[in-house]
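$ run holo --ligand "AHM" --emit tokens
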Amino acid sequence: MYTLGEFIIDNKKYFSHSIESLLRLFSAIKLAAKAVHKEVNKAGLTKNIGSSGKTNIQGEQQQKLDFFAHNIFINSLKNRDIVCGIASEESKDFIIINKKENIKDKYIVLIDPLDGSSNIDVNVPIGTIFSVYKSKYNNDFLTIDDFLQNGSKQILAGYIIYGSSTILVYTTGNGVHGFTLDPSIGTFYLSHPDLMFPDENKIYSINDGNYIKFSNGIKKYIKYCQKEKRNGGPYTARYIGSLVGDFHRNMIRGGIYIYPQTSLHPKGKLRLLYECNPIAFITEQAGGKASNGYKRILEIEPIDLHQRTPFICGPMNMVSKLENFIKNYDE
Ligand code: AHM
Ligand code: MG
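-- output --
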């Protein structure tokens, strides 16, 4: 059995930054993931389910576990002396760690501590998504520009899915690898090496309750997916409303995830920096494509910490097909 730590050390030649830093970062991420796993697993027994009664910067209801996960990840990352700044979905502004210390050679982490948290109360998979950069100018102090880097600059991205098992999936630009937590001893073991989208892809994932709010291109693509007798039959629809859960299934089983702009969310719903960029990095490393319909997600220049974007990710051929529909019917 191959642990995450051993795997990182054995693959250090593929990582162009300090391996000690990567190990320390993962030490923080693993610890926080295990604490969240434990809390999520017993959520029905504790008073930790339901809304906290507060809303976040985007005006959305925060769940009690959103808070818990945010605090656990922030504290764990803070204590490693390797992270100089953190931005979280649950916090309006970025957080500076150790203001007085030099930030050179330290890392910026952007995180959605508990994505899909509206699913907590009904026992559906939820996840943590993380994205890591070096500071932009390697200056002596942090500015917003350190956080507003385009996704192609990520040096590490990943997610933890709290599902039927807890799995940590990551990439540093050398393929995508998944590690399953053995909760009895608290160790992540390699279970999904070199994840790639399969050759045959037949799933489409979109909240089609929003159908009347979609553009023509998206509507036509949904009809294309549903058409009989093409390539052996129609695609199958799978959507649980949890990005990490929907994406993880689609990467393993073969499918496209779509959260387009709607009249309700004219800029899309998902957040570029801590949801779409890390999933896009993983998508590309798994042989797929991630786009806003017109442009590669990883090339979008961010202007705001919490900015949203339409998001399409999945196997190359499916995403390109949808981009063609958008080009032909929406432009
Ligand atoms: P959240 O960050 O508030 O949890 O929202 C993000 C989630 C994604 O996980 C999921 O794909 C999407 O919102 C579902 O949205 P909808 O319920 O509109 O389909
Ligand atoms: Mg989220």
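-- notes --
The chain is about 30% helix and 25% strand.
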